[in-house]
Amino acid sequence: MELVHFLDNSLFDENAEKTFLAHKKIMKESLPEADVQHVGSTAIPNSLTKGDLDIQVRVISGQFFEAVDSLSALYELNEGSIKTDRFRAFKDDSTIPPLGVQLTVIGSEHDFFWKFRDVLLRNDHYRKEYDELKKKYEGKAMDDYRKAKNEFFQRLMKTPEYKKL
């Protein structure tokens, strides 16, 4: 059973930003039209993180399969994630911090990572609530944490702050 652990994201700030900028540059070389964004907890000051870096790559529908091919040449497909014609997940565990890449079609049902980041950045009470959830699952089963995290974000999607984005 995989256990989840969290740390203050300030421990990862410098490496996360450096890794993000390096990989954004690489991605933009092969996908110049893509919108490449730093998402996840390392993008949100004062939050707890598992210590990984998340990047969302947003493309228009007609560029999706080209983007899949480009990112497949750079990263490993994340086999533990869903795979659709509007979403793919990739990873690189060799980077510092480890990297997760979410490729989404702009405006699709999976184009929400940047919205979650923005809601948490603009509304500290949601960030604190999310951190409290993380504290509750510290050292516990990753699957249980992921279920609770999903419930939190499903509820966040119903808020006026999220709907404005």
UniProtKB/TrEMBL annotation:
Entries under Gene3D superfamilies matching the protein: Beta Polymerase, domain 2 (3.30.460.10)
SUPFAM superfamilies assigned: Nucleotidyltransferase (SSF81301)
Signal peptide: none
Any coiled-coil regions, as ranges: none
One Pfam family from the record: GrpB
PANTHER family xrefs: GRPB DOMAIN PROTEIN (AFU_ORTHOLOGUE AFUA_1G01530), GRPB FAMILY PROTEIN
Protein name: GrpB-like predicted nucleotidyltransferase (UPF0157 family)
Organism annotation: Bacillus chungangensis
Lineage start: Bacteria, Bacillati, Bacillota, Bacilli, Bacillales
